[in-house]
Each structure stands twice: as C-alpha cells, then as structure tokens.
C-alpha cells in the first residue's frame, strides 16, 4: 500500500504555517461560516476577518504554485485537450497502488477508516457547484446546472447526494463501532476540501475552480469503483454501497461534460484562461495525492483505530 513517487518537484520546503492543521482548520471554519445556513447569519465573517484569511490564501496559493512546472503548459484549446487527457491518466496511475490495495486487501476497519476520512472532508460540494455557475451563460451554465441537479437528487430529498453519503457513512459506523471513527482529520484532508471552497468563494480563481472540478469529477469514478469493490468483497449492505456505486457513472458523465462543455469552450473563447485552468487542475492533483498519502500514513500510525 504505497503511493508512487510524485511527478512534480517536491523539493520546495512548505511554509511553517499554511500546511499546518491549525491554519487549515481556521480556513475551513471561515469558509463554512461564509456558507452558513440562513439561521446562522450572525456567524458570518465580518470585514476585518478577511484580512488574515486573504493573507493565508495568498500564502497557500504561492506555495502550491511553487510546486508546479508552468513552463510547458498548453497555449490553445487543442493543446489543452491533449494536456488534460495526459494529466487524467497520470493521476489515475499515481493513486492506483492505494486504491488497488483498498479494493483487494483492506479490512472492514480500514475501509471504514477511509470512509470516515472522506466524511470529514466537508467541502460543501453542492454549494461549490452552485457557486461555479455564477457569471456563466448558455450551454456552459446548463452543464453546471445539470451537475447541480444531480447533487440535488433530481429533486428528491432522500436522493440528495449529501443525504445519501451521510446515511451510508452512518450505517458503516454502526457496523464497525466507535473505534472506526476518526477524531481529527489531518491537514491534508482539510486542504482537499478547502481548496475548492477557496476557489469557489474567490472570483479571481474561477478558472482554477473549473479546472479543479473537472479533474476531480473525471478521476472520481475510478476511486468509487475501487471503494465499491472493497465494500462488496467485505459484504457491505447495499444501502451502504448505493451512494458510492451511483457515482461511478454519474461522475464519469460530470467529468466529460465539464471538459467538453465548460473547459474546452472557455479555452477556445478565452485562451488566456488556459493557464489558470491548468493551475487549478495541477494544484487539485497535488492536493489530492497528498490527501491519499496522508490516509496511508494515518493507517500506519493509528493501528489502534483499526483493530
């Protein structure tokens, strides 16, 4: 169970604060307050809090960009499509060792540990998709609207994806017991959710958000298929499996629609946005791989949670 070596330059020394659990927790709390439900309006951040948050965001973006090789990014839509296709394939190769292990060898407790980690990465994905539509027109907006409607369970409350995931996770916790619960998500897990929230809430990062969403959705079916294989091998009930199984097809379609109806039209109409979309793809790639490596490390270091 070892992730392959990273393809990007990892010699950069991380800043002492932005990759810490405390700073990522602070960002997560801030973003969730920005997206709080109507009854929690008094919890919304006030103007002076944004100064520190913007400083952290600038520091984080500078660090993540320092990990990238931006010298060979595509310059036009045709080049972008080839570049994106290669990145999609590379991403799958890089995480395949972990997900092959998860599918074929993980115990029930280890699988539950992974799901518990996923549960704590509360990126408010449906809100991210809603925010991604702002400012769009025409078919591009329809592509995101269709994605959002899927998140809403096609109008059925019990089929809303957030509802289904929480139900699946809760049932799995009941089967395993309290030892399967993760008390604190690591910084890498919080970064995985925080990245999308930052991109969605800061309009200057809109093209980065679209790139990150596309690579996330396009690579999700492989991860879900491995999770479902593990669940069926371990004889999980179908109501636990249902959410994960449905996303194999749904996210494959979402990834395709985001690529061909959102990213490609934007690349053709606004070539200067290509670099920003690529940066979003690459940073999401790095943050996701860091996240899966953190799960692997957590499993090794927390055997008492898995027995």
What does the model show?
By secondary structure, the chain is mostly helical. The protein has one domain: Heme oxygenase-like (Heme Oxygenase, Chain A, Up-down Bundle), CATH 1.20.910.10. Helix content is 70%, strand content 0%. It has eleven helices and no strands. The chain has helices spanning 21-34, 47-66, 77-104, 108-120, 125-132, 138-151, 161-176, 187-201, 206-233, 238-269, 274-301. Helix 6 runs antiparallel to helix 10 (238-269), helix 8 runs antiparallel to helix 11 (274-301) and helix 9 runs antiparallel to helix 10 (238-269).
Describe how the helices and strands are arranged.
Blueprint (H helix, E strand, L loop, with lengths): L20 H14 L12 H20 L10 H28 L3 H13 L4 H8 L5 H14 L9 H16 L10 H15 L4 H28 L4 H32 L4 H28 L6
């Amino acid at each position: 169970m070892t992730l392959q070596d990273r393809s990007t330059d990892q010699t950069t020394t991380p800043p002492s604060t932005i990759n810490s659990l405390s700073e990522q927790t602070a960002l997560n709390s801030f973003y969730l307050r920005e997206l709080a439900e109507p009854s929690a309006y008094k919890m919304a951040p006030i103007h002076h809090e944004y100064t520190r948050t913007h400083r952290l965001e600038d520091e984080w973006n500078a660090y993540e960009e320092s990990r990238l090789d931006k010298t060979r990014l595509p310059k036009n839509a045709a080049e972008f499509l080839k570049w994106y296709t290669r990145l999609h394939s590379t991403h799958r190769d890089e995480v395949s060792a972990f997900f092959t292990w998860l599918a074929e060898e993980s115990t029930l407790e280890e699988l539950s540990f992974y799901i518990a980690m996923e549960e704590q990465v509360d990126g408010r994905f449906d809100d991210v998709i809603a925010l991604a539509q702002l400012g769009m027109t025409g078919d591009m907006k329809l592509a995101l609207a269709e994605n959002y409607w899927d998140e809403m369970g096609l109008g059925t409350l019990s089929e809303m994806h957030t509802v289904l995931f929480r139900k699946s996770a809760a049932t799995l916790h009941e089967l395993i017991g309290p030892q399967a619960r993760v008390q604190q998500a690591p910084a890498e897990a919080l970064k995985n959710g925080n990245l999308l929230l930052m991109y969605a809430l800061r309009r200057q990062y809109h093209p980065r958000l679209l790139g990150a969403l596309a690579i996330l959705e396009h690579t999700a079916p492989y991860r879900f298929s491995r999770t479902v294989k593990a669940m069926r091998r371990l004889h999980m009930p179908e109501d636990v499996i249902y959410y994960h199984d449905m996303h194999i097809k749904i996210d494959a379609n979402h990834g395709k629609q985001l690529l061909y109806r959102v990213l490609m039209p934007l690349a053709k109409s606004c070539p200067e946005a290509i670099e920003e979309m690529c940066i979003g793809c690459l940073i999401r790639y790095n943050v996701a791989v860091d996240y899966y490596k953190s799960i692997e490390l957590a499993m090794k270091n927390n055997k008492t949670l898995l027995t």
